[in-house]
Amino acid sequence: MRFSFWTGNAHPWSEILDGCSHAEATGWDGIWIADHFLPFMGEDMGDMHEAWSILAGVAAAVPRVRVGPLVTGNTYRNPAVLAKIATTVDHISGGRCVLGIGSGWQENEHIAYGIEYGTVGSRLDMLEEALQVIRSLLHNERTSLSGEYYDISNAPLQPKPVQETMPILVGGGGEKRTLPMTAKFADEWNVWATPEIMQHKNNVLDGWCNDIGRDPSEIQRSAVALLLPGMTEEQVDAMGEFMVGRPKVLGTPEQMIDTIGQYADSGTDEFIVPDFTLGPLEQRKTSMDMFINEVAPSFR
Questions:
Q1: What is the largest CA-CA distance in the chain?
Q2: Of 41, 63, 193, 207, which is most buried by a Cβ count within 10 Å?
Q3: Within a 10 A sphere around the Cβ of 286, how many other Cβ atoms?
């Protein structure tokens, strides 16, 4: 199993770079960052760096690890331009970029920046067209598509990524639209999930792959959960609404090993730890070190 670190967008660049460099130096496998322009809790004011700019900086400054967005909001960028951005980051990194994408969901960003929000259905329709555009650009010399949302005319993508196949990762757990799109277009898939939900969603995704004649093993699966070292369920419950319904890995290293074992048994290929609950930078590093040194080795 791979283990990756999700850095927050709100930290100063120097702190983002420090945390990501520490993750690389201590044996983590990947760096992820959310694609948001505004905070999603409480007030809409607050620092929030643009994701692909951060990824380009991390790609240049941090060696070895994979880098990618978790995930790009499709509504924010034309998919052909997004393919160009991601390919450039792949070149900067020497072939370590993952193009993560989802339908987009954060309404306050759309309102503030004048981006059409539409409906859940229209955003999913847009995502499906965008995936067709991106996959074609990555693999074909020219791409044309005249769709409801995108009109691409004989478009090249040059240079192609450094990787023979730059992975497309689809984020989201919708069983009627997102997982069928994942089966058709994606190389990787990500979702916030408990081990039980991960097992169920993996079974659904396998079913969609079988329906279209695709080998389910071609799609790597990753899960996200909050890391809460040393905490009990009661302490977590007392932390408030932010924790409600979110998957968590908590307690002692032994308890964490048990939980990660359940993720491994569910078919999870990569476990991603966001820094949301890990505190200030030095405390964050201590928790990261504990996890990567005391928990992760049981699954490598």
A1: 58
A2: 193
A3: 13
Residue 199 CA, chain-centre distance (Å), reads: 19
Angle at 223 between CA 40 and CA 14, to 5 degrees: 55
- The domains located in the chain, with CATH, are 2-299 (3.20.20.30)
- pLDDT at 221 exceeding the cut of 80: yes
Residue 30: how many CA atoms within 13 Å on its side-chain side?
Answer: 26
What spatial distance separates the first Cα and last Cα of the chain, rounded to whole Å?
Answer: 6
**Which pLDDT tens digit goes with each residue over 19-39?**
999 999 999 999 999 999 998
CB of 10 closer than 8 Å to CB of 280: no
Asked if residue 43 has pLDDT above 80, the reply is no
Strands (E), the chain: 2-6, 30-33, 66-69, 72-73, 99-102, 143-146, 151-155, 168-171, 188-192, 220-224, 226-229, 248-251, 270-274
The pairing of strands 151-155 and 143-146 is: antiparallel
DSSP 226-256: EEEET--HHHHHTT-GGGTT--EEEESHHHH
**Distance, CA of 159 to CA of 137 (rounded, Å):** 11
Distance separating alpha carbons of residues 92 and 62, to the nearest angstrom: 11
